[in-house]
Amino acid sequence: MIRVLIADDSAFMRKVLTDLFNQQPDFEVAGTAVNGRDLIEKVKQLKPDILTLDVNMPVMDGLQALAIIMEENPLPVVMFSSLTQRGTDATIRALALGAVDFISKAGGAISKIEPVQDEILAKCRAAAQARVRRTIAASDSKPLTYTPRPLMPTSTEPPKMKRIEVQRRTGLKLGQKPTVKIIPVAPVPPPPVRGSATTGAASKKLVAIGTSTGGPQALQSVVTRLPGNLPCGVVIVQHMPAGFTKSLAERLDSISAISVKEAENEEIIRPGQVYIAPGNYHMRVQPASGGGKKIVLSQEPPVGNHRPAVNVLFDSVAQFRGDLVSVIMTGMGSDGCEGMKKIKAYGGYSIAQDESSCVVYGMPKAVVEAGLADEVRPLNQIAEAIGTNGLYPNNEPVETPQMVLQREMLEESESEEEALMTVLAQAEALAEGYNFEEAISVLNTITGMQSRDERVSEARERYEKGDSGLVNWVDGDIPHLCFPTLIYDT
User: Fold this and answer.
1) What span, in angstroms and rounded, lies between the C-alpha atoms of 124 and 126?
2) Omega within 30 of 0 (cis) for the link into 308
3) Closest to 425 in 3D by CA, of 185, 182, 173
4) Is residue 487 scored above 80 in pLDDT?
5) Within 13 A of 300's CA, how many CA atoms are on the CB side?
6) Contacts with 23 (C-beta within 8 Å, 6 or more apart), sequence order
7) Which residue of the set 212, 259, 357, 441 is catalytic?
8) What HEC string does 216-230 produce?
9) N or C: which end of the chain has fewer CB within 10 A?
10) Are 208 and 325 in contact (CB under 8 A)?
11) Measured CA angle at 216 (ends 230, 134), to 5 deg
């Protein structure tokens, strides 16, 4: 039985929705709320399974109440929204705060429940299965920002890096203090400002993302972490009706380093730009004159009840073969799986969001279970994966001075185990000198660990506190060592 709490300042709407849910064998109305303040108390008292929420309420509006609820007592929320500009903007903010889905009210109110009752029931049943998490407090509801940070200092003096000398044959022993040399390296130029991403071979790359339920919040997490100078374009299909995708694009643009806009027909895809398919339009990408790529929109029939459909986008971008990085994220159903089959057949790269971080593990699950995912990543690592695979032509990384140093460590060591101990010793030496940011940066060069998320997270916390015991901490469990091409601040 799904226990639902109904929040609406209209007595008529509370009655209509109560009757609708009470007629269903799998729903029970736990209670109703008439304003935001009343709602917060009812959520604490009644502990419902899901909440239906109208944005416009007296005393405290729906958005203010939602922010507090998602911080203190998170639960699945389905919003009711008007199709006015103000209504669509509020809906996008609600989805960013953690609402699972929404019902659009044509004409500004639902005067007759029959045309949308099936949609209400379907979305509330799906929402009851969603995973929700605590979000930021209402008092801290500030737009997420990302400032691209150079991998090396950009001062006029050549920056300095620590180099670890590893003893031959015996290697560095646990607890042994490393010998550190200071070596000058050429500075890395500062990244271009927003909108000035370089063109050239790297811009042949394309990133394609598909998502549905839980997508607006997931996109906020991913897009805000992409650098403004990402030297390739990004195309996105988010299942959303007409009138809402423009507000989504505008909100993401306002809080991101990279530029975001709603896609237009025949638009040339440019580096450092994100394009979101408009609601009620399929989006395809086709080659353009001069070797570029362009967006083609159409109102062909829905595919799998979706327009835009992820399968349509993925089918069109598969032709770009190894220059394509595709991402499938949270959402109901399996849209995107068929298109991903073609992407993989043509040699494209695929990333799927993992189950634990999805609001609804449907679309990624279909891709993973079909064996089509090259990587399965939690939400907070997807931007890093896009950067690693999307920045450089043919997936060949451009080595920074730090990466060169790490590679030389590996080449000079007799085993990966010895090289790893060298890197850990380097981080230990930096932490002991209170260079915690540098120590964390060194730890970020270690990937491919078992339980990597927990280990790196704990290591960061320990180094931020000045704890330099990581070398002894990993004794007896030496993971594989490899080097990413891009480090993000997560």
Assistant:
1) 5
2) yes
3) 173
4) no
5) 12
6) none
7) 212
8) HHHHHHHHCCCCCCC
9) N
10) yes
11) 110
List strand residue ranges (DSSP E) for 226-380, in order. 233-238, 259-262, 273-276, 282-287, 293-298, 324-328, 349-353, 375-377
Separation between Cα atoms, residue 191 and residue 464, nearest integer Å? 26
Q: Which tens digit of pLDDT belongs to each residue from 25-52?
A: 999 999 999 999 999 999 999 999 999 9
Q: Which residues have C-beta within 8 Å of that of residue 463, sequence separation ≥ 6?
A: 427, 431, 436, 439, 440, 443, 470
197 Ramachandran zone, left/alpha/beta (phi>0; psi -120 to 50):
beta
Q: Is 212 a catalytic residue?
A: yes
Q: Write down the pTM of the prediction.
A: 0.66
Q: Could you tell me which of 233, 275, 231 has the C-alpha nearest to residue 253?
A: 275
Structure tokens at 317: 């971008």
CA distance 226 to 222: 7
Tokens of 54: 């109208």
Q: Which two tokens stand for residue 141?
A: 């509801």
Runs of H (alpha helix) within 4-130: 11-22, 36-46, 62-72, 85-97, 117-128
Strand pairing report for 77-82 and 101-105: parallel
pLDDT for res 384: 86
Q: H or E stretch including 56?
A: none
Around Cβ 233, how many Cβ atoms within 10 Å?
Answer: 25
Q: Among the options 239, 316, 323, 326, which is catalytic? A: 239
Q: Pull the structure tokens for residue 151.
A: 């991998």
What is the C-alpha to C-alpha distance for residues 188 and 79, in angstroms, rounded to an integer?
47
Closest CA to 102 of 145, 60, 136, 52: 52
Q: Which among 268, 170, 255, 195 has a CA at the least distance from the CA of 221?
A: 255
Whether 292 has a pLDDT exceeding 50, the answer reads yes
221 has catalytic annotation: no
Place of tokens 């922010």: 67
pLDDT of residue 361: 93
Catalytic residue among 8, 54, 101, 335: 335
User: What's residue 415's pLDDT?
Assistant: 61
| Whether residue 140 lies in the annotated active site | no
Nearest to 166 by CA among 418, 474, 438, 392: 418
CB of 471 closer than 8 Å to CB of 428: yes
C-alpha–C-alpha distance, residues 437 and 455, integer Å? 17
